[in-house]
Specification:
This protein has 345 residues and is an all-alpha fold. α8 crosses α12 (236-262), α9 packs across α10 (214-224) and α10 packs across α12. The chain is globular and about 55 Å long. It has a two-stranded antiparallel sheet. A hairpin with a 2-residue loop joins β1 (188-189) and β2. It contains 15 helices and 2 strands.
Length: 345
């Protein structure tokens, strides 16, 4: 009878079921879900961001003014778009040094199409986005199919795209954009700048793609072990091309919004943006070796980097020294990343 009772009990439980225990409350489920989204590194970064906000509010009476918060919000939004694209590239073990020049090229293309050619703003924006995405496709194809390292490919494209921007305009700026276009960079919705809304949507979409889709899993797999990914049937070359297209498209979107924010298309736009994007991603925990990192970390890294830049401005530090501080922070973040990787082995 005992054997029958035990077998009956065993047969009543389905394969894969967990042993019965105390029921999970909504609070415990929320806590488990939160822990799956926020890592220890990201929670530390969030704490640093909050601490920096408190310190800035005490050191400068201008930090919490509406004007300053609006400017910082727009800057974070524009930088985050590029950083999200850079995150995709770094996750596959690559690097994209051409994003800053793509910003300049797309800014110039937008001006030429909208002001010089007189195209409707919507059509001009679409064509400019396609042009920027095409630059990313060239980067990805040369890297994936020719086998040239992404560093070399995008370094060359950095010069090519910047040269095209300068050549198209002969080094001059383009102004005279319609008000409907300028609203994208200068307007607000519910008191929050439009670029912040767009960047938030992009970040959420990127998080969903990387964490919930087959393409996202393939991105991590390629970055972790490309040979194993190829043997498992993943089209690694296709993944690489798509990732570089994503990076260039997001840089193009940032360039269009920056053009609308400044009311001018300029070939000098985007100078140094690639370093800021790499730094923001690495500060957020994205490994330069590929395969490790999340969008939430990139969001926090971008916010921290832009808040530090704003702090330097509010404290009256020269723009020349600001570049020094930014460079030190980026190198320090990379060194910390490498130290953490060696320690985990």
């Amino acid at each position: 009878m005992t054997i029958q009772a035990n077998s009956a009990t065993a047969s009543s439980s389905q394969p894969g079921e967990q042993p019965s225990g105390p029921p999970r409350t909504p609070g415990s489920r929320f806590k488990t879900g939160l822990l799956s989204v926020v890592s220890a590194r990201e929670s530390t970064l969030a704490g640093v961001v909050v601490l920096l906000v408190i310190v800035l509010s005490l050191l400068s009476p201008y930090f919490f003014t509406q004007g300053n918060l609006t400017v910082v919000g727009r800057q974070i939004g524009l930088a985050l778009m590029i950083s999200v694209g850079m995150t995709f590239v770094i996750l596959i073990g690559g690097i994209d040094l051409s994003v800053g020049s793509i910003v300049a090229l797309v800014s110039v293309l937008t001006g030429e199409l909208m002001v010089t050619a007189g195209l409707p703003p919507a059509l001009a924006v679409i064509i400019a986005l396609v042009g920027g995405a095409a630059v990313g496709a060239v980067n990805g194809i040369v890297h994936a199919f020719v086998g040239i390292p992404s560093f070399v490919v995008t370094l060359g494209m950095l010069a090519v795209a910047r040269g095209l921007a300068l050549g198209i305009t002969s080094g001059s700026t383009i102004s005279g954009f319609p008000a409907s276009f300028l609203y994208l960079g200068q307007g607000s919705l519910l008191g929050i700048p439009i670029p912040v809304w767009i960047a938030a949507v992009i970040a959420l979409a990127a998080h969903f793609v990387l964490s919930r889709t087959t393409f996202g899993r393939h991105v991590y797999f390629v970055g972790s072990n490309e040979d194993a990914a190829m043997l498992s049937g993943i089209h690694t070359r296709r993944i690489k091309v798509l990732v570089f297209v994503i990076s260039a498209t997001l840089a193009s979107a940032s360039g269009i919004l920056e053009t609308a924010r400044l009311s001018v298309g300029q070939p000098a736009a985007g100078n140094g943006y690639e370093l800021a994007a790499i730094g923001a991603a690495v500060i957020g925990g994205v490994s330069l070796s590929g395969g490790v990192g999340r969008i939430l970390g990139t969001v926090l890294g971008t916010t921290l980097l832009l808040l530090i830049q704003n702090a330097l401005i509010l404290l009256g530090i020269s723009a020349y020294w600001q570049q020094v501080f930014s460079g030190v922070i980026i190198v320090g973040a990379v060194a910390l990343n490498m130290w953490r990787k060696k320690r985990s082995r």
